[in-house]
Known about the structure:
This protein is mainly beta. The chain contains two helices and 19 strands.
Amino acid sequence: MSKSMKRLTAPRSWPVPRKTDQWITKPSPGPHPIERSMPVLTVVRDLLQACDTAAEAKRIIGNRDIIVDGRPVKGHKFPVGLMDVVSIPKLEQNYRMLVDRRGKFRLVTISEGEESWKLCRIENKTTVRGGRMQLNLHDGRNIIVKETKYKTGDVLKVEVPSQKILDVYPMAKGNIAMVISGAHAGEISVIEEYEVTRTPSSNIVRFRDGKSTVKDNVFVVGTSAPVIKLPEASVI
């Protein structure tokens, strides 16, 4: 796999200049697909602006100064994606990766204690040995549970790095959701209806404000109010 990619072909969710340089680091295969993640080197240099060059970013990462979801990052191409928690213990700074109203990745500063958990959407479920259920999450995690109450599209509040489930936010009427891609990316609204079709990928979520989108674009972030700090003020 190539170590770099042309800046002009980088996903539109990356908030980086397109014409300053020809090349940019390409994320390695990992927990997030390339269109929904950024390499940690780019996060450190361009989003956090913790340094000016790629060499300096590699040095910071090599010193194990960057923590993602409770674990030190080892490689500079490691993909950081939606809802990941990025921490710099030496600076006592913690951030959550979200998308803004332009569909661009943004690191939102979070309070002390919030770095210990993240939100994970259930992408699908499989039955494993012993009749237990394996939940396959949007960030590549797999959690085995005894309960069958969890549904595809529901969002779990997960302790990191232990993966203990702290809470669940169902894809259901009245709950608060963020649109993570598409024309309304970054918007927050109240779910009015979840329409299940014959093709799961085409399931429709309708919002109280009259807008609608497919299920894959929707990420539940709370029940009566968002449980995460948002990139910018949003009207619910």
